[in-house]
Amino acid sequence: MKIGVLALQGAVAEHMRSLEAAGAEAVAVKRMEQLDELDGLVIPGGESTTIGKLIRKYNFMEAIQSFSQQGKPLFGTCAGLILLADRIEGQEEAHLRLMDMIVARNAFGRQRESFETDLDVKGIDEPVRAVFIRAPLIKEVGKNVDVLSTYKGEIVTARQGHLLASSYHPELTDDFRLHAYFVDMVKEAAASR
Amino acid sequence: METGTSRVKRGMAEMQKGGVIMDVMNAEQAKIAEAAGATAVMALERVPSDIRAAGGVARMADPTVTEEVMKVVSIPVMAKARIGHIVEARVLEAMGVDYIDESEVLTPADEVFHISKNDFTVPFVCGAKDLGEALRRIQEGAAMLRTKGEPGTGNIVEAVRHLRLINGQIRKVQALSKDELYNEAKVLGVPYELLLNVHESGKLPVVNFAAGGVATPSDAALMMELGADGVFVGSGIFKSDNPEKFARAIVEATTHYQDYKLIAEVSKNLGAPMKGIEISKLDASQRMQDRGI
C-alpha cells in the first residue's frame, strides 16, 4: 500500500514514520501529479489556514476531491480534520468539504490549554494516548458519519466511509494503532476498486 | 488529562514545521501575515532592525500590542521575553500567548541564568548558535530552537554559520564512542543524557528553525536546504518595499525550497528587500548573538 502525506506544511515526517510502522509505504506529497500513484492520503496537522492557502495555490483542491471520489481513503488529523470538513464554525468558507460535519477551530482555547489524555476509540481495543494541540472539535455530524470517540461529550474522532478524521495527533506518539486502522481502510478500498 | 507536558509543548512546534513565523508590530501587519500563509506571528513593539537603530534597553512589548494581535488572528501568537526575565515570561503566559521566545533580540535581564522553562505550561523557543547552547536550552525546558543568526541585519551569513555548525556538531557526536561522549559532554557543557540522545538519534530532540537574517525567498529556501525545520522572518517582511508580496513569496519558497523555477517566479518584481548590514561592520556590543550562551 502506498500512502501519501500532504507535505505543504506541518508534521509530515511523523505521519510517514507512523504509516511505515503500520506496514505501509509512505510518500511525501508536494505536487498534485503524485496523487495518481497513491492508494490513500493523510492530511497532517499544521496550520489549517496555511495548508488551505497552499492547497488552493497548487491546485490540490480538485485533485484531492477527485481522489476521494475514486473511493481512495483520506485521513485528516487536527488541521487535516478542519480541511476535510464541510463547514467551519464562524467562517464563511470551508476547504475540501468532503466530510459531512461542522467543526470548530481552536475549540479548547490557546496553547496553554493544550493537553494529552487517554481516549477510547471505537474499533481499537485499548485506549489510545491522544495529544490535543490547539485542537479543533467536531460540533455536528451528518447521518453518514460514524462517531468513533468523544471527549467530555464532544466528538473527536469520526469516520464517513473511506474518510477518517481525528482532532488529536496520533502521529506524535509511538502508538501506531490508529494508523494501522487507516492502513486497513486503504487495503479494503483497494480490494474493492 | 495533562497540560504543559513535554509532548504537548514540543508537538506544538512540530505543527509549525515547513512554515514561516513572521514578526508583526500591530494588528494590521498580523492580518497581512496570516493572509500570506504565516503559520504563526511574533508580536513585537519593534522589529529587530528598529531595536538595533533605537539602541537603549529593549524589553517585552506593551501587552496592548500583543493582545491586539491575539484578537485579530486565529493562528498562534508568539511574544518575546528578555533572557532570564521570569516575570515578563509569566506575564506573557498569563495573557495566553501561545509560545514565548526567550530572546537575545531584547536586552538580557540576567547575564548568567536563563528562565527555568520546565516550570511553565506555555512552551518556549530559544536561540542557539552551537550544539552546546542548543542542548543547554533544551535542558532548561525549551520546546523549540532557532538559530540566533544576527537579528535585524538582513544578512543570512550568521544563520548559515550557526545551522551548519550545529548540524556538523551533531554528525561528529554521532561518530563518537561512549567514552568520548563523556568528555564531549564536559567540553560542550551539556548533560550527558541529552548528548547520548543526539548520538543515538542523529538529531535534536526538538524542532529547529532558522532565524536572524532571512530577507528574501531564496534566503528562506537556503535555510531549508541546510536542514532547518522552518523559518522565522523578523525585519525581512515589514522592512521590505512590499510586505504582502514578500510574505507570500517567502511562504511559497519555504514550502517548495527545492523547486528553483518556482522560487525564481515568486522572486520576480518583489521590490527592494530590507537594507542589510555587513556583519564585520558591527562592533562587539551590537552583536545580539553573543547574548545568553
TrEMBL record, chain A:
Any one Gene Ontology cellular component term annotated for this protein: cytosol
Pathway field: Cofactor biosynthesis; pyridoxal 5'-phosphate biosynthesis
Gene3D superfamilies: 3.40.50.880
Catalytically driven reaction(s): aldehydo-D-ribose 5-phosphate + D-glyceraldehyde 3-phosphate + L-glutamine = pyridoxal 5'-phosphate + L-glutamate + phosphate + 3 H2O + H(+); L-glutamine + H2O = L-glutamate + NH4(+)
EC annotation from Swiss-Prot or TrEMBL: 4.3.3.6, 3.5.1.2
Signal peptide annotation: none
Active-site annotation: 78 (nucleophile), 169 (charge relay system), 171 (charge relay system)
Keyword terms: Glutamine amidotransferase, Hydrolase, Lyase, Pyridoxal phosphate
InterPro entries found in the cross-reference section: Class_I_gatase-like, PdxT/SNO, PdxT/SNO_CS
Binding site for L-glutamine: 46-48, 105, 133-134
MF terms in GO: glutaminase activity; pyridoxal 5'-phosphate synthase (glutamine hydrolysing) activity
Any one Gene Ontology BP term: L-glutamine catabolic process
Family: Belongs to the glutaminase PdxT/SNO family.
Function: Catalyzes the hydrolysis of glutamine to glutamate and ammonia as part of the biosynthesis of pyridoxal 5'-phosphate. The resulting ammonia molecule is channeled to the active site of PdxS.
Quaternary context: In the presence of PdxS, forms a dodecamer of heterodimers. Only shows activity in the heterodimer.
Protein name as annotated: Pyridoxal 5'-phosphate synthase subunit PdxT
Source organism: Paenibacillus radicis
Top-level taxonomy: Bacteria, Bacillati, Bacillota, Bacilli, Bacillales
Gene from which this protein is expressed: pdxT
TrEMBL record, chain B:
Residues the entry annotates as binding D-glyceraldehyde 3-phosphate: 164
Transport among keywords: no
Domain of life: Bacteria
InterPro entries in the record: Aldolase_TIM (IPR013785), PdxS/SNZ (IPR001852), PdxS/SNZ_N (IPR033755), RibuloseP-bd_barrel (IPR011060)
Domain PdxS/SNZ N-terminal: 6-211
Keyword annotations: Lyase, Pyridoxal phosphate, Schiff base
Binding site for D-ribose 5-phosphate: 23, 152, 213, 234-235
Active site (UniProt): 80 (schiff-base intermediate with d-ribose 5-phosphate)
One Pfam family it belongs to: SOR_SNZ
Pathway linked to the protein: Cofactor biosynthesis; pyridoxal 5'-phosphate biosynthesis
Enzyme Commission number(s): 4.3.3.6
Signal sequence extent: none
Function: Catalyzes the formation of pyridoxal 5'-phosphate from ribose 5-phosphate (RBP), glyceraldehyde 3-phosphate (G3P) and ammonia. The ammonia is provided by the PdxT subunit. Can also use ribulose 5-phosphate and dihydroxyacetone phosphate as substrates, resulting from enzyme-catalyzed isomerization of RBP and G3P, respectively.
Family (UniProt): Belongs to the PdxS/SNZ family.
Quaternary data: Homohexamer and homododecamer. In the presence of PdxT, forms a dodecamer of heterodimers.
Protein name per the record: Pyridoxal 5'-phosphate synthase subunit PdxS
Organism, scientific name: Paenibacillus radicis
